[in-house]
Design goal:
By secondary structure, the protein is an alpha+beta fold. It has a domain at 79-209 and 237-248. The protein has helices at residues 14-23, 41-46, 78-96, 140-145, 159-172, 179-187, 190-193, 208-217, 229-236; strands spanning 8-12, 32-36, 50-52, 61-64, 71-74, 101-116, 122-126, 147-150, 199-205, 238-248. The strands form two sheets. Strands 2-1-4-5-3 form a five-stranded mixed beta sheet. It is elongated, with a radius of gyration of 21 Å.
């Protein structure tokens, strides 16, 4: 395995892992790695790469974690795992910078359907939907994504120390693209400005990393790879979930 880890890994029987190039009618995305289930599994352990989820088996697909180093998530858990982690990240930033309440609302925009053309290129089609995620009765997804929390500030709360911790987290997990979170942290730091934020609403797409991985992996829907039915269904309708989070300090 190269120093740069592939974003998507699929395990195949050894013969297919070695010879898929000669059967595939297009060139596979360089961010996808095809591994032998018989011979390559130990390679991950030897290189201290963690595979989270079910043990690798033939046709298993794993996605590289967008934040954590040397961690892959099995296809069956990756969506829920990343969504919950993103929401937990926002909540953690909120209470560390002194939020007294955090109100989260989830909204769904038009989903996309992915397909592969004869050259292996991903084609996207927007699917129109009339309803959005405004009621927990309308969507099972919203039940797991809605969050409202209240906090009380304790005597040992140290805002400046927490801000320094959060800035280190931004660097450690390469979260510089999370402009809303970075702005929230900076706006609560009064050491230079002498002013402090008291209320802020952040809007963000929480499925962006997962959907990016799905689009990369869409080529694995080719019959050559015999990917699972669940995987094929996951790329048939790619959902886009956005959050509006209100922080009150």
């Amino acid at each position: 395995m190269s120093n740069k880890l592939a974003q998507v890994v699929i395990f195949q029987e050894d013969e297919k892992a070695l010879n898929y190039r000669y059967r595939l009618p297009f060139q596979l995305n360089s961010n996808i790695s095809v591994k032998s289930i018989e011979y390559d599994t130990e390679e991950f352990t030897n290189k201290n790469i963690k595979l989270v989820g079910p043990r690798p088996s033939r046709d298993s697909i794993y996605y590289l974690h967008p934040y954590k180093n040397n961690v892959y998530l099995h296809e069956s858990i990756v969506e829920k795992h990343l969504l919950e982690e993103k929401l937990a990240l926002y909540r953690r930033v909120g209470y560390l910078v002194g939020a007294k309440s955090i109100n989260t609302k989830v909204v769904s925009s038009n989903p996309e359907k992915l397909s592969i053309d004869a050259e292996g290129k991903v084609q996207k089609k927007i699917l129109k939907v009339e309803a959005n995620f405004n009621s927990t009765k309308e969507s099972k997804e919203q039940d797991s994504l809605e969050v409202y929390e209240e906090y009380s500030i304790q005597d040992n709360f140290d805002l400046n120390k927490n801000i320094d911790v959060l800035n280190n987290i931004i660097v450690e997990y390469n979260l510089h693209h999370e402009i809303g979170l970075k702005s929230l942290i900076d706006s609560r730091d009064s050491r230079d400005s002498g002013t402090m934020l008291t209320k802020k609403t952040i809007s963000s797409e929480i499925t962006s990393e997962y959907n990016s991985l799905l689009k990369i992996s869409a080529q694995l829907s080719s019959p050559i790879f015999s990917a699972s039915t669940d995987f094929k269904q996951s790329i048939e309708t790619v959902k886009k979930l956005n959050i509006n989070i209100e922080f009150v300090f």
